[in-house]
Design a protein that fits this description.
Two copies of one chain form a homodimer. By secondary structure, chain A is an alpha/beta fold. The first copy, chain A, has a single domain, classed as HUPs (Rossmann fold, 3-Layer(aba) Sandwich), CATH 3.40.50.620. The first copy, chain A, is about 35% helix and about 15% strand. Chain A has seven helices and seven strands. In chain A, α1 crosses α6 and α6 crosses α7.
Chain lengths: ~230, ~230
Amino acid sequence: MTPAVVLLSGGLDSTTTLAIARRDGFAPYAMTFRYGQRHTEEVDAARRIAADAGVPQHVVVDIDLRVFGGSALTTELAVPKDRSADDSVPITYVPARNTIFLSYALAWAEVLGASDVFIGVNAVDYSGYPDCRPEYIAAFERMANLATRAGIEGRTLSIRTPLIELSKAEIIQLGTTLGVDYSLTTSCYDPSGGVACGHCDACLLRLKGFETAGLLDPIVYAETGTRSAVSRKP
Amino acid sequence: MTPAVVLLSGGLDSTTTLAIARRDGFAPYAMTFRYGQRHTEEVDAARRIAADAGVPQHVVVDIDLRVFGGSALTTELAVPKDRSADDSVPITYVPARNTIFLSYALAWAEVLGASDVFIGVNAVDYSGYPDCRPEYIAAFERMANLATRAGIEGRTLSIRTPLIELSKAEIIQLGTTLGVDYSLTTSCYDPSGGVACGHCDACLLRLKGFETAGLLDPIVYAETGTRSAVSRKP
């Protein structure tokens, strides 16, 4: 099987992306980052998902984005709740995060001799982050082909973004047909005791996605969740 | 003063680049990586250089490239000695290293509100690394402007490479006119007890540079150094 690096956050999108890489015949080498998140639920979820999928290798890379400050996900700023959608970049944006993640993936791909890197970015329900846009991914791919031996040796490295044009509901529907167990995933920016808050941007997008897809979200939300009609109570 | 992020390895090129950033009126925020090198002389040198230059801030970022294997600089493979120049990528190449370094610099620039990142890459005496070429830097810059708030907000982020077209001798001559103290710098891939080996690619390039510039290299080389005529003996 052809090796591919798959960025696996432990969330819904990256878990679906891992299933797509397998469907497309790749041996998925999973890479997760522990980057000073205020919670480690994501890393724990990624370990469960990688084990469940039987990946050939799963690496957890420690990186410290806290030295830069600047984001609610890595500092002590409050995670915004029940934010209405607008075009501004939210405070939960981590500076250059996907660029750093893809750079590590590129390094691993080069060592593995892999020509494919999968990332579950999404330009539809994407919270307004600049590094989720198709033009960004295309520019990264072009740079990556100049950065490495691959470019010199005439191989082409591809950054694959199978979710980029899908809505959250479409992602959930596709993953369900591929047998993804969404009970293993976590999305909340501000979980408490393993329970999703139901109010941060990530919870709101996820809940709306399951609702639109007409499917039940198998994870647990706090009693105060606004969409309790489609979530299983604790 | 305008802030700029300057990648500072502790070597000759990055130290000269720091001096150029100051000459050009920037307040240089220095960033150094501890990345599983087999020696920490580089990080110690970077600390001395940053202190000597009185930079507004110096961060040392821990990253672990060892998880990927694949290079003499981060694993237990032997550093090649007295290699003759050819076009192949040497074993000392660290996969995607400059891409990872620039990605962190991009994150810090965004937090600082800086629009300039300096890196001392060199396309002339560059050891054959793919990520030192001008076309690579141009592609990274283009990607960076799509990756961050800067691009969305209409600012332009510049990756500045003031050394890229200079020979090693020209770099040393320029740095000397700017008052760079090269005794603070370290270049060797395989130092022993603070003494440069004199035989690895980095030592050979450095020694040839000082020789061509007609200047004395103030650092100490092992007695067995091939160019002892231009180096101070221990």
